[in-house]
Amino acid sequence: MERQNKRVVDTDRLSDLPDHVLLHIIESMNIKQSVQTCVLSKRWKDLWKHLTNLKFHHSYPDNSDMFCKFVSQILSGRNHYIPLHSLDFEHEDCIDFEPKTTLLEVMRYAASSHNMQQLTVYARIRKISDLELPPSIFYSRSLTYLKLGFWQIYGSNSGKTTIPKLLNLPSLKTLHLRCLTFTTSDDGRAEPFSACNMLDTLVIICCYLQENAQVLCISNSNVSSLTVGSNYVYDEAHNYNVVLCTPKLTSLTASGRPTFEAPSTHGLPFLEEVNIDYTYPYRPCEDSIMISWLQLLANVKIMTLHFKTLVEILCILKMGAQPPCFVRLKSLKVELKSNDDISNGIVRKIVKILLRNSPPAKVDIIRKG
């Protein structure tokens, strides 16, 4: 009896804590556990409705339909007068329904929430039709982090999700985009980022240009970290030129076909770290692009090259091109897959050719599974 009374006293003591303390406690739980606290007592019944950070993650083999119903119930049951700071919706397994249901509901809820700072909506979809995103998402004055991606599991992303011609996100610092389509101007160019004055980190993966335009201009005076790439080896829809107007860029990761238009030699004066993975077969017509980039990277300190990229560079050098002098290079990493049938000794011989005009640098050979 004494133990039971002590337990009641302890429970009451916890329930007597201020709302902000209890909310801090349930914020550390996953969303299902947070909602389940409503059964503890009347004191806890409506606390979850005041959460300012919502995180919904679905992964295989969870039931997708039940997950989506749960998301809808939480969004409809939450206290709409409480500001929502962050909303994170990620569906790792394939969504087996039209996205104009739960996905659109999540996006609309985010668009109607004032002062939201972080938004993630990332989903794989079995069959995607054109998904119209709420325009206000791209004109938010409060968002500091935005991650959007909608891609189809099978086949090409035939129903392309389009974003506006110009993103007006004055507080945004980090932007991740995957499998989205950039709206182009009459001149066939897309230039969506120039008005994002606080943007520091930009990631663009497997994105398209409207009506198969040919030029994506990344023009931003503050971006310091840039990742541009494609996971689709044979998809020509991603084969467009990327023009960089990013004078403060310090880190660049590039994968896919080498379709960058290198700026002038002084166009990237602060570039220090690069990671290049050009997985396409070698094409002689792209020699000039690769050579111009080798010259541009002459001042980098840390360089990571995937082995196939290194082989392509070797092909160019064997045709008479001179390797640049990497005057500031301190570290070169060569990444290989675990099943690449080539010895470290041969890799080092190739590296020696690449660095023959450069001061000594640390060379690491990394085999990844």
Automatic annotation (TrEMBL):
Residues 11-59 form the F-box domain. It comes from Medicago truncatula. The gene is 25502615. CDD domains: F-box_AtFBL13-like (cd22160). InterPro entries: F-box-like_dom_sf (IPR036047), F-box_AtFBL13-like (IPR053781), F-box_dom (IPR001810), LRR_dom_sf (IPR032675), LRR_FXL15/At3g58940/PEG3-like (IPR055411). This is F-box/RNI/FBD-like domain protein. It comes from the Eukaryota.
